Amino acid sequence: MLDRELVLKLAQLSKLKLSDEEVLKMQNDLGGIFEYFDILNSVDTQGVNPTYQVSGIENVVFEDEIHDINVTPEELLNCSNFPKVDNQIQTNSIL
Amino acid sequence: MTMLENFTIKSLLDAYASKKVSKEEVFNAYLDRIEKYNQTYNVYVNFDRETSMQNFKDMQFQDGQILHGIPYGLKDNFIHKNNFVTACSKLLEGFKPSFDSEVVSKLKKSGAVSLGMVNTDEFTCGASSETSIYGPTLNPYDTTCVSGGSSGGSAALVPLDFGVFAMGTDTGGSIRQPASFCNAVGLKVSYGRVSRSGVLSMASSLDSIGHLTKTVYDAALVLNATAGLSKEDSTTFANQIEDYTKFCGEDISGVRIGVPVEYMDETVDSEVKEKIQAAIKVLESKGAIIKEVSLPMTKYGVAVYYIVNPSEVSTNMERYDSIRYGRRSEIEPKELLDIYLDSRSEGFGIEMKRRILVGSMVLSAESYESYYLKAQKVRTLIINDFKKVFEEVDVLVGPVCPIPPFKVGEKSQDPVTMYTVDALLTPSALAGLCGISVPAGFNSNGLPIGLQIIAPHGCEDRLFKVGHKFEQETEYYKQTPDLI
Question: What's the CATH code of the domain at A30?
Fold first, then answer.
C-alpha cells in the first residue's frame, strides 16, 4: 500500500485529479505493482549497460524541406473544441 | 451472404479475378454482416454505414493493386481521415482526424478499403479489451470469454468474417495474444519494420504495427503493402524483401527450432501445453530439428515491461491536453491548469491513470535508478538471452499465452494478474523481435490456442516459412464459430 500523500503527489505531477475513491484504489494497486517489481532486485546488473532503444539506428538525418501533408490549417483548427481567434486557439490565460 | 463467409485475401482476389463477385457487392455484404451481428460481439466501434460507404467511394481502385478491393477493419488507434478515431477513450470522443496515418495511406494505395474502426483497450493499454470505453469485445468461440487485447476487436473480426483482415498494434503482445484467443494469425513485426507515423503512440520504444489475418500467406501479403523505410518514422529500416509470400510453401527440413523450457513450465495450462507439444511434433515430422533451449530471464519480462511501458505511456499521454483536439471538459476553467486537470481526469479511464502514475513514479529523481534504470539494464540481459539462443536455432516456438481465453471480468480487478497474462510475449517485445501467432487447435471447452513463433529482428521470412508449413498441415483456421 502506497502512502496517500505519495499518490496525491504523483497525481499532481501527472496533471490528474483523483477522487477519494480513486486515491484509495491507486494506493492499493500501485502498492501491489511496486511489490511485484521487487523481483528485479534479485538480478545482478553490475556492469550491464541499459537499453533505451532496440532499432540499432543512430543519427537519422533528412534534408530540411517542406513536404506536402495535404492538411490545411483550418482542418487542424477544426479538431479543437476551443474558440478560435485569428487562426489561433483561445484558452484561459497561462499566467 | 453465405457466399462471403470464409474469404481469405487470396481467395477473394481470385474471386474478383474470375469475376464471380464485384467489389461493391462484397463490401456491402460485409457491412450487412457487421450490422446484423456486431451488437453481440462489440467488434466495431462508432460504426456508421455511411462513413464506411464513403471510405469505399473515396478509393482509387486500379488494376494490379496487391490488396485490390479487400475490405478490412482498422484498430481504433490508427489515424484515418474523416472517421472517428478515439483510441476507445472518452478523452478522444468525437475526434475526426484530418489526415491518414502512413499505413492507412499505403493500404489505400494497395487497394484495401476500411470498413471502420474496431475495438481496443483504451489507448491500447490492456490485455482483454475490457478497458475500452465501449466495453470488451466478446470471444467469437464463447461469448462469456474475452477476445484478448489490446487488439481484441481486430482479432475477433477475423473468424467472425467482419472483414478479410484487420490492422493492429503490438507493444507487449497486443496482436499475438488476441490472435491466439480468437483462432487468427497475428503478426508482430520487428521494431521498425512498419512506419508508426499517424498511429497513436503508447510506448514508443516498443510499439509495432502489424495485422491479423486468417492465414499466414495473407499475413505475408499485407506486409508487402505496409513494410518499408519511412521519412516520417526514423526508427524504420529499409525493406530488403519485396515479396514475403515467396517464403510460404518453402521446405522446413533442417530448420532449427528452439523450445524454451521457460515457455513450457508448470505455469502453462496442461491443455495449452498438450497442443503446443502436438504442434512441435507436426514441425518435427516435416523435418525441422527440435532443440530444447533456455531463456532464463523470461521471468523478469513482465516486471521490466511494466516499468518501461508506463514510463513511456506517461510521457506520451502528456500531449492530451484537450486543447488542440479531443474532448473538452464541460466544467468552466478558472485557469489553464483546470483545463488539463478536468479534461484528463474525466477522459482517462482507471488503467490509464494507473499507468500514468506508475510512469511518473519510476521516472521521478528518487526512483529513477532503482526502477527505471534497473529495468533497462535487465532489458539488456533479456536481449542477450535471445542473442545467445539464436546462435543455436533459427526460430523459437512455444505457447502465445500460458492460459486459454479467460472469462469477462475474471482478471480485470487485479492489475498484476492481468499483466502476467503476457508473460511469454513481453520479453520478445522488449527485444524488438518479430513473432507470429498461428492457430494450434482448441481446448476441451472449444476455446482457441495459439502457437507462438519468434524470430530475430528483421527475420519475418522465417515466421512465414515455419508458420505456413504448420498451417498447411493443420488448417485450424477453417474451424469457424457459429454466429449468434
Answer: 1.10.20
What is the count of residue pairs from A and B with beta carbons less than 8 Å apart?
161
Kindly list the averaged pLDDT for each block of 10 residues, start to end, along chain B of length 484. 77 95 96 97 98 98 97 98 97 95 98 98 97 98 98 98 98 98 98 97 97 98 96 90 95 98 97 98 98 98 98 97 95 94 98 98 95 98 98 98 97 92 97 98 98 98 98 97 92
Among A29, A45, A79, whose Cβ lies nearest the Cβ of B95? A79
The residue range of the domain holding A26 is 4-42
Do residue A13 and residue B344 have CB atoms under 8 angstroms apart?
Answer: no
Alpha-carbon separation of residue B426 from B221, B348, B359, B379 (angstroms): 26, 24, 17, 10
What dotted CATH number matches B2-296+385-478? 3.90.1300.10
Paired strand residues for B72: B114, B165
Facing B360 at nearest CB: one of A10, A25, A62: A10
ipTM reported for the complex surpasses 0.90: yes
Number of compact structural domains in chain A: 1
